[in-house]
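Incident log, support desk, overnight shift.

02:14 A customer reports that sequence design results differ from what the structure should imply. Their input is reproduced verbatim below. On-call engineer (initials T.W.) acknowledged and began investigating.
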């Protein structure tokens, strides 16, 4: 059981790294702060973009990674 969860955690870790690296960078600086409000107001289809999908995937895979980490920590703490 521990081996299967460890393998699942490694796979989710690698997937989380890939999803984070595929996201585009956020604009920074004063020009990004000024034009950022216009972008969010004008874009109504934000939920269907790849960046939005990657952001949602990042949240869920990150949550799964944390749950797996806690489960493995509890399992290994009870063994020793």
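02:41 Re-run completed on a clean worker. Output:
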């Amino acid at each position: 059981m521990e081996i299967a969860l460890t393998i699942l955690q490694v796979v989710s870790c690698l997937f989380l790294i890939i999803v984070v690296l595929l996201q585009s960078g956020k604009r920074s600086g004063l020009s990004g702060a000024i034009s950022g409000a216009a972008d969010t107001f004008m874009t109504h289809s934000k939920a269907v973009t790849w960046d939005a999908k990657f952001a949602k995937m990042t949240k869920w895979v990150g949550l799964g990674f944390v749950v797996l980490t806690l489960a493995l920590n509890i399992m290994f703490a009870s063994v020793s």
